[in-house]
Write a structure and sequence with these properties.
Rossmann fold; alpha/beta; 433 residues; 46% helix; elongated; 14 strands
Length: 433
Amino acid sequence: MPYLLNLVYLLLLLLAMPYLAWKSLRAGKYRAGWREKFLGRVPRRVGERPCIWLHAVSVGEVNLLPGLIRDLRRRRPEVECVVSTTTRTGMELARKRFPELSVFYCPLDFSWAVRSAVRRIRPDVLVLAELELWPNLIGAARAAGSRVAVVNGRLSENSFRGYRRIRPLVARLLRTIDLLAVQDETYAERFRQLGAPAERVCVTGSIKYDGAETNRDNPTTQALRRLAGLAEDDIVFLAGSTQEPEERLALDAWRSLAAEWPRLRLIVVPRHPERFDSVARMLDASGVGWRRRSELDACENPADARVLLVDVIGELGAWWGTARIAFVGGSMGSRGGQNMIEPAAYGAAVCFGPNTRNFRDVVTAMLAHNAAEVVEDGEGLARFVRRMLENPNEAGRLGGSAQALVRNQQGATARTGSLLSGLLEKVPARPVA
């Protein structure tokens, strides 16, 4: 089987070569980590401490790991953690998040590469984030005596239908996995239907929800409220992580309601700092009274301007705590959405555009629990904001459902850490070399 897979991978690689070469020349992708990816020449681990190898494909999966690694270190301080990723952006983030750990590109699923990587890492447990079912990697880890776990597991309806067509092969692979820690019962049932042993499937919730602040009275948010001159009866409409043209759509929605709702304040937080000045020019051209966040420290009357442009980085999480009505950006264009968990955790009435593929599982859960709404365009955004203003009970219900969803999901990191710690205890002692 490994050699057949190698052949299939090589054929796919040859077919993809023109695209990979074009992306490498045009965007600089796929240039780094060739020795690690094709030969498995990952950093060699020294020492005999127990080891957990955590693999996260890209940025989204890397963001799941900090809390889980902290939990594992608390439970098992003697354990060494190493982190692998697949994409360049995932590698950049992982190195920033885990400067003290060994971080490397995961080998491609060629048998020689994964066997080399497993020999060099010597993991006791291989942890795969969400759904990375690479047969040769899993087989090499098992052959070396490692346990294998999937954490924060999910299986979309489309993936489920695809895997069901090759169920005998998938079932055989799933039976080699010691732990499937999945986000909800729907995913758990799909894994069981594909042949995963029921006793190895555990519902833990989604790690993505852990760490989200739910208290609007936290010191950072309260300091920002005072800095912006927000009064108790102000109603903040916040458009966060925005891209072109979402700032303009949010401004148009606010302008259509500003005269009728004099306590309505607009806060705009663009996703990328290089766009701060272009958004500022757009606000200047609009003729509305507005201020930059960077000017507030020296401003005597910040409440005089009803529109605020947050032109500093790292504060959005706390600014969400000021919002009663929230639009999560990156969802009207091609980016695929941004994190809507933070405003939901504060109990804001949350909406976002139709393009949210990067947070598909979170969006599905929020819509299923009536905890958010999708707005198709600028007119839909304006209608949503108006409805929330005219129906504060509806806004409260929407926000309350969102906050309850987040709170109910929190704790997944600790549940997952406990399962992994238990799995580590089942690893047989390795012979002394």
